[in-house]
Every structure is written in C-alpha cells, then in structure tokens.
Amino acid sequence: MSDTWYGPEQFLSDIDVPRETFQALNFYADELVKWQRAKNLVANSTLEDRWRRHFLDSAQIAPLILQKNKKRTFQLLDIGSGAGFPGLVLSIMGLGSVELVESNGRKCVFMNQIARQTGADAVAVNKRIEDIPARPVDIITSRACAKVDQLLRWALPFLTEGTEMWLLKGVGAEGELTEALASWNMTVERFQSRSDPTGVILRLRDIKLK
Hints:
The protein is an alpha/beta fold. Helix content is 41%, strand content 22%. The chain is built from nine helices and seven strands. The chain has helices spanning 8-14, 19-39, 44-47, 50-59, 61-68, 87-92, 105-118, 148-155, 173-181, and strands at 74-79, 96-101, 122-125, 139-143, 164-169, 184-192, 200-209. A seven-stranded mixed β-sheet has the order 3-2-1-4-5-7-6. Helix 1 (8-14) runs parallel beside helix 4, helix 2 runs antiparallel to helix 7 (105-118) and helix 8 (148-155) crosses helix 9.
C-alpha cells in the first residue's frame, strides 16, 4: 500500500464522473469488501488501497479511450476480468457494452450481481477466452492476466481493422512488447499509469500477425 491514503474523495478529484456514476462505483467498492471475506475476489493486500489499486487503475483508461477515438460508446471485451477490473468499471463509467470473460465462477457471480445492481451494460461469462465465439469488437482490455503476446493470440478472433487493445501492464511491459513484436505488426502507444509509478498503459492498434 502507498504511504499516502487514497480513498473515494481522492478518486473523485482525479476522475471526473457524474454523481450517479460515482455512487455506483462507491457501491461496487463497498460490495467488494463484503464479498471478499467469503469469495477472495482480489489479493487481500490490495483491499485497503482498493480505490487506487483497482478503481483508479481501471478508470484511468476511460478518458484516454475517449480522447483517442471519435466514437463515444464501444463494444468491449475484457479478458480475465477477475473481480471486474478494468471492464466492469469502464461499463459503469458508460463506455459501452462489456463482455467480462472470467474462468472463475464465483468472480462471475459477483460481477453479474454488481452489474445488475448498478445498471451497468455488462455481462460476466464464466468461460475461458478460447471458448468465446469469435465476433468483432471495438476495444479489448486486460489487466494482470497474461503477457502481451498471449493476449494478442487470444484477441485474434475478435480483431477488426479498427480494433484497439488497451492493456494495463507493470514493469515488464517493454520486455513483453519486444517478445510480441517478433510475431506481430502493430502500432504501440504508451501512457504513464496514474495509479502506479512503475505501471504503463499500452494502446495497441493496426494489429496483424506476421
């Protein structure tokens, strides 16, 4: 945990969202604590700092996606959603329809409950990404799930000419990109994470297998 306390008020000062959206995210954060006791949804070490480690980490992608695209709502696919980060947060923030792919059943139950109670346009699917039928999507997101090359291979059936991937990565991002570029052609943009000084957000587009 950071030495500086980061809670809902700090989040709201960093991320500009309407009051209703903030209330939904606050509900989500409270429910995460309640469900954690029985379901072990996230690492216990991150729970106290959840507003920075999970909510800011996820929400920071939204203004970047909107800044870089003319569209305002999207069809999103979130790979390895865990307890809903970043996909469910992005859905609550109004980015569009999100399919949350997660192989852990209890986490899917949690995400679907949050989606119902917040009115988020999201559904959690208790499957592995390899078992999801191919379809075109606008945005593919993922956090702490797999290396870049593996994520690209999972994403391939969903890619169209305009599909973008937005990945939250840590200190190993450059090594993962070097490995991936041996097999893939793509345009890469990097953004400094606002939640983790060692983190980076990757925007991948024009993606083609060599």
